[in-house]
Write a structure and sequence with these properties.
Blueprint (H helix, E strand, L loop, with lengths): L4 E3 L8 H10 L4 E2 L3 E3 L5 E3 L5 H13 L3 E2 L15 H18 L3 E4 L14 H18 L4 E5 L9 H8 L6 E5 L1 H6 L4 H9 L3 E6 L1 E3 L4 E3 L8 H7 L7 E4 L14 H17 L2
Parallel strand pairs: 1-12, 2-5, 6-7, 7-8, 8-9, 9-12
Antiparallel strand pairs: 3-4, 10-11
Length: 276
C-alpha cells in the first residue's frame, strides 16, 4: 500500500482552479486547503470562507476527483496572551469547512510565546489553552481529530512537548509530524522525534530544511531525515503525506514560478518513495 499524497495548493497559486489543475496533473488527489481564491473572488483563509463559497469549493474539488486531506487552519498559531475567543471562532470556521469538504482532520498549533523563545515553564499555560480548544471541538464534532503540527517557535517545539499536547483530553488529537520544522528546532526528526511521536502520527508534512544554508530544501535535500521517517511510517496509520515545501521563499526559489517549484518538490518526494 502506498501513501496517499496531499498538499498545500496555495504554494502553487492563490487561485484554487490553478491549484487543482497542477495537482491533478501530478496525480495528487487530495488538497490541504489554507488560503483559497475562488474564481472571481478574493483570497481568503479557509476558516473565513462562507457556506456558499465552501459549497463552490466542494464542487470544484469534486470536478477534479479531489479529496480534502485536512483543514489547514491557523488555530493555535497565536500569542499565548491573545484572545482565545478568536481561536474558537477560527475553530468553528474550520469545523464548518471540514463538514462541507468531508475532512476528518483540522491542523492546529501549540501557541506562540508573547515574546522570546517558548520556555518550558510557560508551557502549562499553552497546554491549558489548547485543552480548551480540544474541549470546544468535542462539543462541535467529536469525530473530527485535531492534527497537531510541531513548530520551532511555538510551545510544541520538541518531541516531549508534543507528547504533552497529544495527551490532553477533549477531542481526539493526533500528530502532524513536520520534519523540516523539527530541524529548525534543533531536533533530529527520525532519531529523536519519531521514537516519541511515530505511533501518534497520522499526518506527515513533507518539508525539509538544510542547516548548511539555513533555508528550506526539497525533500531529501536537507537534514529532515525524510527517507528514514517515510521508511518507518505505516501507510495504514498515516492518512496522508502533505507537501508543504516552502520553496518559493528560498534564495534558490525566489522569483521563480511557484507551480514549477511545487512540481520539483513533488518529484523529490516521489524519488524518495520510489526508492523504498
Amino acid at each position: 500500500m502506498r501513501f496517499r499524497v496531499s498538499g498545500f495548493g496555495d504554494e502553487i497559486s492563490d487561485e484554487l482552479s490553478v491549484q487543482l489543475r497542477v495537482m491533478s496533473e501530478l496525480g495528487v488527489d487530495a488538497l490541504e486547503p489554507r488560503r483559497v481564491q475562488l474564481p472571481g473572488g478574493d483570497t481568503n483563509n479557509i476558516v473565513d470562507m462562507s457556506d456558499l463559497d465552501l459549497r463552490v469549493m466542494r464542487r470544484m474539488l469534486d470536478d477534479h476527483g479531489m479529496a480534502c486531506s485536512q483543514i489547514g487552519s491557523p488555530v493555535g498559531k497565536a500569542p499565548l496572551d491573545s484572545d482565545l475567543q478568536v481561536q474558537m471562532q477560527q475553530l468553528e470556521g474550520a469545523v464548518r469547512a471540514a463538514h462541507v469538504l468531508d475532512a476528518a482532520y483540522i491542523r492546529v498549533f501549540g501557541f506562540q510565546p508573547v515574546q522570546g523563545d517558548p520556555l518550558p515553564a510557560d508551557r502549562p499555560a499553552a497546554l491549558g489553552k489548547f485543552q480548551r480548544v480540544a474541549e470546544h471541538l468535542a462539543t462541535l464534532d467529536p469525530e473530527i481529530t485535531l492534527s497537531l503540527e510541531n513548530e520551532h517557535d511555538l510551545y510544541d517545539d520538541t518531541p516531549a512537548a508534543c507528547a504533552e499536547f497529544l495527551a490532553l483530553d477533549g477531542a481526539p488529537i493526533s500528530m502532524c509530524l513536520d520534519p523540516g520544522n523539527f530541524v529548525r528546532a534543533g531536533v533530529r526528526p527520525f532519531d529523536e522525534a519519531w521514537p516519541v511521536l511515530g505511533a501518534a502520527t497520522q499526518m506527515i508534512h513533507v518539508k525539509d530544511y538544510d542547516t548548511s544554508i539555513a533555508d528550506w530544501a526539497p525533500a531529501g535535500a536537507g537534514d529532515g531525515q525524510l527517507a528514514d521517517v517515510l521508511g518507518a511510517a505505516d501507510p495504514k496509520a498515516v492518512a496522508y503525506l502533505s507537501l508543504e515545501p516552502h520553496l518559493a521563499g528560498t534564495a534558490a526559489g525566489r522569483g521563480r514560478d511557484r507551480a514549477e517549484l511545487w512540481r520539483e518538490a513533488h518529484a523529490a518526494l516521489m524519488r524518495i518513495l520510489n526508492s523504498q
